[in-house]
Amino acid sequence: MAHDDTGSRKLAAIMFTDIKGFSKKMGEDEVAAMQVLRTHDTMMKAVVEKHGGVVIKSIGDSFMVDFTSAVNAVKCAVEAQENFWDYNKEKSEFERIEIRVGVHLGDVITMGNDVYGDGVNIAARIEAITEPSRICISEDVYKQVRNKMQIKVYRMGSIELKNIAYPVEVYELLFESIPELSQPSEGARSRLSQTKAETISKQEEEEAKAVEVARKKADDEKKKEEDEKLRQGNEIYQRAEQHFKAGEIVEAEEALKEVFRISPMHYSAQMMVLQIEEERSRREDEERRRRVKEEKKRKEEERQAKIQACLESAMQFVEEDRFAEALAAVKDVYRIDPKNTEAKQLEEQIQQAEQAKLELERLQALEAEQQAQELEQRQRREAEETLARAKAEAMGGRSALPTETEKTNWKLYVGIAAGVVVAAVAAIVLLAPKFLFPPPTTLAVLRFDNTQLQGKDNYSGAAVATLLGEALGRSTELTVIAPTTATRNDSRNSDLSELANTLGLTYAVLGTFQNTDLGITVGARLVDVQSKETVWETKVDGSLLELPQIANRLAETILTQLQVGPVNLPVPQRPSPSDTAYNYYLRGIHLVQQQNLPSVEQGIAYLQIALRYDSTFAHALAGFGKGLLEQFKRTGERDRNLVNRAFELGREAVGFNSNLPLAYDVLAEAYWFNKRFANAREMATKSLSLQPAGTEPYRMLARIAMVEGNFESAAGNIARITKVDPDHPTTHFIAGLLHHYRKEYQAAAGEYDQAGKLGMEDSLLSMKFKFNALIGADMEERVYSACERYLNAADPKTKVVLYYWIGRAYQLEGKLDPSLHALDGGIAVADSLLGADPNDYLSHTYLALLQSRRGNFDAAQKQMDRAESLAPGSPDVMYMRARMSALQQNKTTTLDLLAKAVAAEYNLAHIFDVDLLSVAGEDGFASTVARKIQ
C-alpha cells in the first residue's frame, strides 16, 4: 500500500558492498585508483544485472543493490566474489580488488529511486563487519536460501550493530570453490564487538566520502576534456558536411580523418563515413552500369550484324542451291544466338527447299528412266514384231512365248528384293537395343580456369562450376557428378581419360572465368571424354551478380545439345543487390567447403563480411551456418553453441529465401546433432525437393535410415552418393558407418581411412570410429601404435582415453604386460585429474572402465556410482555404465542399460565401442540400438 508521505513498503533483499583499502590506493596514485574503481564498477554492474538486481546507489567505492529474491542476492554475491578472486590472480597489491559483501532480507520503504528503513541499515552494518573477499548474511537470508542452494556457512552468533535496536544473527559464507575461503575468517571466529563494528562503519563512511569527492573531480576533468574535443570535432565535422553536400567526397573524407584524430567515436562522423561509402558505391555502380550498358549495346550491335550477315549468306547460298553451305551459315547464327527465330524459320525453309530440289531431281530421274525404258520397250517391240512377222511368214502366222532367260531374270529380281527386306529387318533387330536403351549419360563440370586465381584459391571458377552443376542436376535424364567432387579437378590440367575411368564420365564441361573492366566473361565448352572432341562451346559476358542466370542459360544450352530434359529450368533469384557481398559470399562458401579447419575459419570470416554489406543475404546466412557446423565437426563436436547458432542462421536464411536448399541442409544437420531425427529428415527431404541432385540430403537420409535400423534404405542412399560424390570425405565416413553396423569391420576401417585421406579431421571423435573398427577387424596393433604417437602431445583428459585404448588393444591382442602398464598409466592420470577436480564425472567413468579392465570390479562400481551422483541422467554416464557392465559379462543387464542410454540420446561412438562386442552378436542388440523415428 502506497502513501504519499511515507512511500511504499515492500520486502526486499538488500546487498551492500565496498572495496578494501580503497582510500589508501587513492592516496598513493589517484589516477590509477580511479581506473581500478572503473573496473570494479563494470564487473559489479554486469553480475548484478545477470541476477536481476537493481543498483539503488553507488557512493564512492560502495554499492547498494535491491533484489526481489534472497536467493538471487546470494547468488550474485557469490559470483561477484568468485569473479574478483579470479581477477586478482597475478595482479599487484595495488591492482587487486577485494570487496566485502553484506546481505539482509527485510522490510524497506521505497521513495522515488531510493530505499530506506531498518532492512537497509542492517545490510549496511553487516557489510561493515565483513572481512575482505567474504560474504556475511543475516539469519533471515540464511533461512530463505539454505534449502534452495548448496552453501556452507559459519555461524558468527548474535551481533549488536550500530543504531539497530536488537542483536542480529550473522553467518559467514564458506567457498568450496576457493580453498583459501573454505574456512571461517579470523574476524568471524572472534565475533566482532559492537565498538569495533561502529569503528569500521565510521571508517567506511569516511572512505566512501573521500572516494566520491575524488570520483567527482576525475569525472569533471574528463567531461571538460571530452567537451572540448567534441567542440573541435563538431567544427571540423561541419566542414566535412559541407564538402559532402557539394559532392566533394574526397575532401569530406580528409576532414573526417581530422575529426577521428580528435574524437575517435564521433557518432555523426561515423554515420557520414557510411554515407560516403554508399555514395561512392552508388557512383561506381552507376559508372559500371553505364559502361556495361554501352558495352552490351556495342556487343549486341556487333552480334546482330554478325547474325544478319550469316542470314544473308545463307539466303545467297539457297538461291544458288548450295544447301549444305546455307545450313552451315545458319549454324553460325546458332553459335551466336541458339534461340534465334529467324534462323529457325530459315533453317526450315532451307530444309524444305533442299527436299523440294531432291524430289524434283528424283522425279526428273524417274521420268528420264521411264522415257529410256519406253524407248527400249518400243525398240524391243518393233524388233520383236519384225521378227514375229518374219517367223509368221515362215511358220504360217504363229506367235513366240517368253524365253527361259527372261523368266530367270525375273526370279532374280524378286530374290534380291526379298534379301534386302530380310537384311533391313535383321539390322533393326540388332540395332534396336542401342536406340531404345541408350547408355546413361554422366557429366561432370570441372572447376573453371581463372588466370588470376589458381588451384584451391580459384573460388570464382569453382562457383561457376558449382552453379552450372547444380542447374544441370535438375535433369532427370542426366547423371551429374556433384560439384564437391567435380570441382576438385580443374579445366586446364585434368586428365579426361582418367576421369572417364574413375567417375564413369561421358561428357565433361570445361571453362574459363575472367574478370573484366565491364564485369565478367565466362567461357564454356562441352567435351566428349572418349573422343576428346568439343561438342559445343560459347562465351557469355555479364556482371558478377548475373552469375546464377549465366549458369542457368549455359545449362539449358547444354541440355539442348545432349537432347535431354528439362530444357527450361526455373529462373534463379538475384542473390543479393550488393556485388561486394556476393563476392565475399563466393569466397567464403568456397573456403568453407575445403577440408581443413583454417580454411573453414577464414571462410566464416568472409561470410560475416558479406552479411555486413547485406544483412538479408540468405545465401550468406546459410553459408555462415554451414561454416559453423564444419567448425563444430572439426573441433571434436564439443561446442554445442556452434550448432545452436547455425540453426538460428538456417532459420533466418529460410525466412529471407524459402527456396534455398543450402538453408535446409544446415537445418537438417543442426537437427541431427541435436538428436531431433524426425526434423532432420523433414529438412533433408525439403532440400531434395528443391535440388534433386543434392548430395547432402542423401547423406543425411542414409544416417537416419541407419539409426532406424533400415540398412537397405541406407545402402541405397550411400550407393547414390558414392556414384556422384565419391571424393567427399563424409561419403566414405557414412559408408564406413554402414559397414560398422553390419559388423563388416575391415571394410569399415577402409572407408574411415579413405575419409581421412580426403580431408576428414583426425579428431578424438573420428578416431573412435576408426579404432573401434580396427579392433573389430583384429588389427589392434594399428590402434595402440597410433595412440602411442598421440600420447605425448595430448592434454590430461585425452591421455586418460588414449591410455585406455592402448591398454584395451594390448589386452585384446593377448599382451598382458604392456596392457597393464597402459591401464595403470591411465589410472594415475585419472586420479590426478580427480584430485584437481573431484566433480569431473567423465574422469570417474573412465577410471571405472580402467579398473574394470584391471579386474577391480568393486572399485569400478564405486567410481561409476560417483559419476552418476555428479551427473544424474547424463547419457554419457548411461553408456559408460553399459560398457562397464559388458566388460563384467552381464549381458542382460548390459542390453537393459544400453536401451536406456539409447532412449536418452543416440550416440554412435558409444554404440560402436568394442567394449560392447560381447553383446553386439546377441539377438536383441540390433533392436536395442535401433531407434524408431516418427
The first-level CATH class of the largest domain is given as Alpha Beta
Task: Note the total helix count.
Answer: 37
Strand content: 5-15%
Identify low-pLDDT runs. Answer: 397-438
The average pLDDT is 85
Q: Helix/strand-derived class?
A: alpha+beta
Main sheet record? 9 strands, mixed
Any idea of the CATH topology of the largest domain? Alpha-Beta Plaits
Secondary structure: elements and pairs:
Layout: E1 2-3, E2 7-19, H1 22-28, H2 30-50, E3 54-59, E4 62-67, H3 70-88, E5 99-111, E6 114-116, H4 118-128, E7 135-138, H5 139-145, E8 152-159, E9 168-174, H6 186-190, H7 194-245, H8 249-262, H9 267-319, H10 323-336, H11 341-395, H12 404-436, E10 442-445, H13 459-472, E11 479-480, H14 483-486, H15 496-503, E12 507-516, E13 519-528, E14 534-542, H16 547-562, H17 579-592, H18 597-613, H19 618-634, H20 640-656, H21 661-673, H22 677-690, H23 696-708, H24 711-724, H25 729-741, H26 745-757, H27 764-776, H28 780-791, H29 796-812, H30 816-836, H31 841-854, H32 857-870, H33 875-887, H34 891-904, H35 908-911, H36 917-920, H37 925-929
Parallel strand pairs: 5-7, 10-11, 10-12
Antiparallel strand pairs: 1-2, 2-4, 2-5, 3-4, 5-6, 7-9, 8-9, 12-13, 13-14
Helix pairs in contact: 1-2, 2-3, 7-8, 8-9, 9-10, 9-11, 10-11, 13-16, 13-17, 17-18, 17-19, 18-19, 19-20, 19-21, 20-21, 21-22, 22-23, 23-24, 23-25, 24-25, 25-26, 26-27, 28-29, 29-30, 29-31, 30-31, 31-32, 31-33, 32-33, 33-34
Mind explaining what this structure looks like?
- The protein has 934 residues and is α+β, with helices and mostly antiparallel strands.
- The chain folds into 6 domains: 2-216, Alpha-Beta Plaits (2-Layer Sandwich); 266-393, no CATH class; 404-438; 442-562, Rossmann fold (3-Layer(aba) Sandwich); 579-745, Alpha Horseshoe (Serine Threonine Protein Phosphatase 5, Tetratricopeptide repeat); 766-929, Serine Threonine Protein Phosphatase 5, Tetratricopeptide repeat (Alpha Horseshoe), CATH 1.25.40.
- Helices cover 65% and strands 10% of the residues.
- The chain is built from 37 helices and 14 strands.
- The strands form 2 sheets. Strands 1, 2, 3, 4, 5, 6, 7, 8 and 9 form a 9-stranded mixed beta sheet that branches. A 5-stranded mixed beta sheet has the order 11-10-12-13-14, with helices on both faces.
- Helix 17 runs antiparallel to helix 18 (597-613), helix 19 packs parallel to helix 21 (661-673) and helix 21 packs antiparallel against helix 22 (677-690).
- It starts with a strand and ends in a 5-residue tail after the last helix.
- Mean pLDDT is 85; it is low at 397-438.
